[in-house]
Write a structure and sequence with these properties.
Elements: H1 7-38, E1 41-42, E2 45-46, H2 49-54, E3 61-64, H3 66-73, H4 89-93, E4 109-116, E5 123-131, E6 142-149, E7 156-162, E8 176-178, E9 182-186, E10 190-198, E11 208-214, H5 218-222, E12 236-241, E13 244-250, E14 261-267, E15 270-276, E16 286-291, E17 299-306, E18 314-319, H6 332-355, H7 368-382, E19 384-385, E20 396-400, H8 407-423, E21 427-429, H9 435-441, H10 443-453, E22 456-460, H11 463-467, H12 478-495, E23 503-508, E24 524-528, H13 532-540, E25 545-546, E26 549-551, H14 565-587
Parallel strand pairs: 1-8, 2-3, 19-26, 20-21, 20-22, 22-23, 23-24
Antiparallel strand pairs: 3-7, 4-5, 5-8, 5-9, 6-7, 6-10, 10-11, 12-13, 13-16, 14-15, 14-17, 17-18, 25-26
């Protein structure tokens, strides 16, 4: 049985299909419109504390300045944290109803950082946005946003409060809240942003969410030609004219103020240095110069750069070719006898081959399976083992150190922490990055909690640390106390037969093995930066070498450590600390 449709049936079917499509489009448009209204970003308002306390109109989401906080508390804060301490909720919102400040509020979600226009070419400005969590949202009183550089202790904070009569529902968990701009951020720097949900009851660890981000480089913000530190000659042309090499390259834009350049070439173990001062009256965009007295047939590797500190260098190669000497045309009286002799030789060889019996040369036979086996063996040796993604989150590493060796050593520790967080897939915990937590808990409580919650503990040992260690040390503070605590943990783990891989000790090139305290004699020891690969292996529980395989990790080995900005910063900090240690010895 076949079902047939007339022309009228086909028309009805087309009409219903068109109506159905129209309804679907209309529903999607309305859903999109309602979703857009729900997720519209909310910016803070200008209002005072009295409006917030009284629940007046026009103060739904307000920015609170440090002057407002000091006025409410009745004194002026002298703390270096300033407005960064989460002040008691009832002091800011009034004591009429303290109950609204005693409920748990879950941490915000979807924290993001966006760059906004900044007229200053040497800095960046960012705005932070987030969503409130649906858990405890009915008791949410506001937010506090903290921005802190990873290489310093100074912090910038912003405080935002709701008026006391405002109550949010779970549907508001899709609303996006924004901070005020954070201006004046250094280009090419790393920062940590923390968004806290207020109020903050005691002993409640889930009230904030953090995110680490990097500001743009000068080239990313201002374009390559506007950045002196990033500029290098992109165009280099090398031509040989006889025994002379002519090099032409593009000059820097005049606004950068670069007036001189240098060339560094090496070949056969010898190096030459040449300063270049272009004549801008002849050509303001390009400059040419000549290289003479080159060794013929040698391969030269050269670096061309602006004559500035830490200038980016342009690498190029060339070979000093040999000069070909032209010869006169030979006389026919000399060529003809040679031609006749060659012809006679060919005739003799042809006759000999015709009279000699043909000998068949047997082609050697090699089994194809042997070739495939050999290729498979070679391939296995070159195979790169890929790390698995079984770990749900990166390992948590607590870094302990001593500040007794001066700011240069502390800078090395901060650069190491930033490098490990960026290139070693590790979540680093450092007291310098959590001044807020130290202010709330105290150093003793903070360190004890970090030891228990961290997957690994790395103690950076130095002479300053070793001076105050040992059972007879008195008045232990900071990281020195940490060594005693860790030593006790290691002793208990050893006596109970537990794994000691959680605890590690490390020294830099300017320290000695004797700087490692006796309390850490049983744990793994590393010398940095030579043992970064071994440290990575322990943190991620992977083998660097297995039969026919090896682990390849970029930017960690000493050969390619300088390929990343974080690696360059770490090596420079180590050199600075080594120099500072040497200067201190000479002063003594």
């Amino acid at each position: 049985m076949r079902l047939t449709c007339g022309s009228s049936d086909v028309g009805y079917m087309k009409m219903w299909r068109a109506a159905l499509i129209f309804c679907q489009v209309l529903v999607r448009a309305r859903l999109g419109q309602s979703h857009g209204n729900l997720t519209a970003a909310i910016s803070p308002q200008d209002c005072d504390l009295s409006c917030i306390r009284q629940g007046g109109a026009g103060c739904d989401y307000c920015r609170i300045s440090s002057d407002d906080v000091n006025k409410a508390l009745g004194h002026t804060s002298k703390s270096f944290l300033g407005n960064c301490i989460p002040w008691p909720c009832f002091d800011l919102l009034g004591e009429e109803n303290p109950g609204i400040c005693q409920h748990y509020v879950q941490a915000p979600t979807d924290v993001s950082v966006d760059f906004v226009p900044d007229p200053d070419p040497n800095s960046d400005t960012v705005v932070v946005s987030w969503k409130p969590s649906q858990y405890g949202i009915a008791f949410l009183r506001g937010f506090q946003v903290t921005l802190q550089p990873l290489t310093g202790s100074s912090a910038a904070c912003q405080l935002f409060l709701f008026q006391r009569n405002r109550t949010l529902s779970t549907s508001h968990a899709q609303m996006v809240y924004k901070s005020d701009p954070f201006p004046g951020l250094s280009l090419g720097s790393h920062y940590a942003i923390t968004v806290m949900a207020l109020p903050v009851p005691e002993k409640w660890p889930h009230f904030y969410d953090s995110k680490i981000f990097s500001t743009r480089t000068c080239a990313e913000k201002n374009e390559f030609e506007q950045c002196k530190a990033d500029w290098y000659p992109k165009y280099v042309d090398v031509q040989q004219r006889g025994t002379v090499i002519k090099v032409t390259f593009n000059l820097a834009p005049p606004n950068l103020g670069i007036t001189s350049y240098f060339l560094f070439c090496s070949a056969n173990g010898k190096s030459t240095y040449m300063e270049i001062a272009p004549n801008y009256s002849r050509n303001r965009t390009h400059h040419s110069f000549e290289l003479r007295d080159l060794k013929k047939g040698s391969n030269y590797t050269c670096e061309l750069a602006a004559n500035e500190i830490d200038a980016v260098r342009k690498l190029f190669n060339f070979q000093a070719e040999r000069q070909e000497v032209a010869s006169a045309s030979p006389s026919w009286t000399l060529v003809l006898p040679v031609v006749f002799a060659a012809v006679a030789f060919c005739v003799v060889v042809l006759v000999v081959f015709k009279r000699t019996p043909c000998i068949q040369i047997k082609k050697p036979y090699i089994k194809s399976e042997l070739i495939n086996t050999h290729l498979n063996e070679v391939k296995a040796q070159e195979e790169v083992m890929i790390l698995s993604d079984n770990r749900k989150s990166p390992p948590r590493l607590l870094i302990c150190y001593s500040s007794n060796d001066g700011p240069a050593h502390v800078n090395v520790v901060m650069k190491l922490a930033a490098f490990m967080q960026q290139h070693m897939a590790t979540q680093v915990r450092l007291d310098l990055w959590d001044s807020l937590g130290l202010a709330e808990e105290g150093s003793m409580t903070w360190f004890c909690r970090q030891i228990q919650e961290s997957d690994f503990v790395l103690v950076v040992c130095s002479k300053g640390l070793c001076r105050k260690c040992g059972p007879s040390a008195q008045g232990l503070v900071g990281s020195e106390l940490m060594v005693s605590l860790i030593g006790a943990e290691v002793g208990r783990a050893k006596s109970s037969g537990k794994d000691l891989s959680k605890y590690m000790a490390a020294i830099f090139n300017y320290s000695e093995e004797t700087d490692i305290p006796t309390e850490l004699g049983l744990v793994f020891h590393y010398r940095l930066t030579a043992d970064l690969l071994l440290l990575f292996s322990q943190l991620h529980q992977v083998r660097l070498h297995t039969p026919g395989r090896y682990v390849k990790i970029n930017n960690i080995s000493e050969e390619d450590l300088t390929m990343s900005p974080a690696g360059q910063a770490l090596q420079q900090a180590i050199r600075d600390s080594e120099k500072a240690m040497k200067d201190n010895k000479e002063d003594i």
